[in-house]
Design brief:
Elements: H1 3-19, E1 25-29, H2 34-37, E2 44-48, E3 57-62, H3 64-68, E4 73-81, H4 86-103, E5 110-112, E6 123-129, H5 136-139, E7 140-143, E8 146-157, H6 158-167, H7 169-179
Parallel strand pairs: 4-8
Antiparallel strand pairs: 1-2, 2-3, 3-4, 5-6, 6-8, 7-8
């Protein structure tokens, strides 16, 4: 691990641990395989147990920033889920590889999963959004010589992605608010 990558990964981990004070945080090294490992050489997923700040599990990437940052600025990602499951760690590795492998995700982008978020779910895409469940204190992560923005990966349906393409991100978020979705419910109904 290069010194810059080591410092960045350590700063992301420290930021997540500080934000989630009182929660247990596990660090999981991701087995991406040799070809994918080249895209995100130092990828780890921080697995945050429920605690005083949230009663859900959070999964946060650490390693995307070092692979894609420009002028000290880059992204990491958070997913919130109702349980601890290896599936969510794998999805975070998938997001990291997709982002660092040339697709350059950003706010209001989406990514196809290629299958349901969890078996039986109609959510088969991830929408990149502001981390509404955690707020700007998690979103803005200072790093040596720059900062990472931690964005939320919200599981959504194909119909919701299509609606966003035609009507815009804000219109979709308004539908989410109106329907009062529970974003961690893998079996929630589509809002469109």
């Amino acid at each position: 691990m290069s010194n810059t990558r080591l410092l960045a990964a350590g700063a992301v981990e420290s930021h997540v641990r500080t934000f989630f004070t009182g929660h247990t945080v596990d660090v999981v090294d991701c087995a991406l395989g040799p070809e994918r490992r080249d895209q995100v050489p130092d990828l780890r997923v921080l697995v945050v147990e429920p605690g005083p700040r949230s009663d859900n599990w959070a999964y946060v990437t650490a390693g995307c920033w070092a692979s894609t940052q420009k002028h000290g600025h880059g992204l990491e990602f958070v997913m919130t889920a109702p349980v601890r499951d290896e599936r969510f760690i794998e999805l975070m590795a998938m997001i990291a590889f997709y982002h660092c492998g040339g697709h350059q995700l950003d706010l209001e982008h989406s990514m196809p999963i290629g299958e349901p978020w969890v078996p039986g779910s109609t959510c088969d895409h991830l929408l990149i959004s502001l981390p509404y469940l955690h707020g700007p204190d998690l979103e803005h992560c200072p790093l040596p010589g720059g900062h990472a923005r931690i964005l939320w990966t919200l599981p959504v349906t194909t119909a919701e992605v299509e609606f966003r393409r035609h009507h815009g991100h804000e219109a979709l978020e308004q539908l989410f608010d109106k329907a009062r979705i529970i974003p961690t419910d893998p079996f929630r109904a589509s809002v469109v």
